[in-house]
Amino acid sequence: MQLDLGSDPRTDVLRQLQAGLIARFGRIVRPLDKRRSPEWVLVHGVIGAQTKTAASNASTDGLLGEFGSWNAVAAVAVEEIEQRLQRQTFPSVAAKRLSDCLNAIIAQRGTVDLRHLSNLDLEQAMAWLESLPGVARKNSAGVMNASTFNRKAMVIDGHHRRIMQRMGIVPAKADTAKTYDTLMPIVPEEWSAADMDEHHLLLKKLGQTHCRPRAPQCDACPARGNCDTGRHAERP
Ligand code: SF4
User: Fold this and answer.
1) Which residue, among 156, 144, 160, 143, has the nearest Cα to 43 in the 3D structure?
2) Ligand 1 atom nearest to CA at 228
3) Distances (CA, A) of 35 to 55, 142, 163
4) Per CATH, domain 9-29+154-231 is 1.10.1670.10
5) Residues with beta carbon inside 6 Å of ligand 1?
6) Domain 9-29+154-231 matches domain 36-145 at the CATH topology level
7) Ligand 1 pocket, mutate which of 211, 219, 226 (most atoms under 8 A from CB)
8) In the chain, which end has fewer C-beta atoms inside a 10 angstrom radius, N or C?
9) How many whole angstroms from 87 Cα to the centroid of ligand 1?
10) Domain residue ranges of the chain, discontinuous segments joined by +
11) Ligand 1 center to residue 63 CA distance, Å?
């Protein structure tokens, strides 16, 4: 993807949004020494559909703690994995996806190890991840950005996508991949991978507090000045 950095007015909107969110919520920084391995982040995403982060954290840690390696988890029957994923919203789906994904990596690489991705450019690495069963754009970007890889990929969940749509930064019906493709070329040039991670975490916070799926609370929202929806919302 050719980045045309700095020339789109939405780039400044993202800068202003970030400053406003930090002013409202404070810094939300994921320390480098607290980052998980790329394999852990991948598993967390594959089993995490419609499930709270804390539950998926516990399930992912539980599997690795019990079996000792992702290769060992890949060798376990799907039904046994399912028994360990009862915290997940869809345990049977999560177990099947995880088994298929881990075994697909082993079929290609001989072992569950993603280190080869650090030798690929970002688009190639994400395309490789998205060729695996159960891996879509949110998870591939998470592996690149929120793991020890710490690379410049924007993670987009439902909160992030909804806010970008309501603000008019991405098209109203953009899916996750379209949102990613729209945002990546307009991300401020000076933002590091950690800034992009913090941006995502701040937007998640905004989505949980003000820009909720139903009845957004625009009157008190720190993004209102830059938001197409907020500007047209009725003032109290
Ligand atoms: S102003 Fe309203 S629609 Fe816009 S981001 Fe804030 S809560 Fe969401």
Assistant:
1) 143
2) 4
3) 17, 11, 26
4) yes
5) 163, 166-167, 210-211, 216-218, 221, 223-224, 227, 229-230, 233
6) no
7) 211
8) C
9) 32
10) 9-29+154-231, 36-145
11) 39
Residue 219 structure tokens: 């009157």
DSSP single-letter state for residue 222: T
Ligand 1 centroid – CA 38 distance (Å)? 33
- Residue 77 near residue 67, CB atoms below 8 Å: no
Rounded to the nearest angstrom, the distance between the alpha carbon of 58 and the centre of ligand 1 is 32
The second-level CATH assignment, the architecture, of 36-145 is Orthogonal Bundle (1.10)
Cα-to-centroid distance, 196 and ligand 1 (Å) = 20
| pLDDT tens, residue order, the chain (236 aa) | 444 555 899 999 999 999 999 999 999 998 888 899 999 999 999 999 999 999 999 999 999 999 999 999 999 999 999 999 999 999 999 999 999 999 999 999 999 999 999 999 999 999 999 999 999 999 999 999 999 999 999 999 999 999 999 999 999 999 999 999 999 999 999 999 999 999 999 999 999 999 999 999 999 999 999 999 999 876 66
Q: Are 51 and 87 in contact (CB under 8 A)?
A: yes
**What is the per-residue pLDDT for 235?**
66
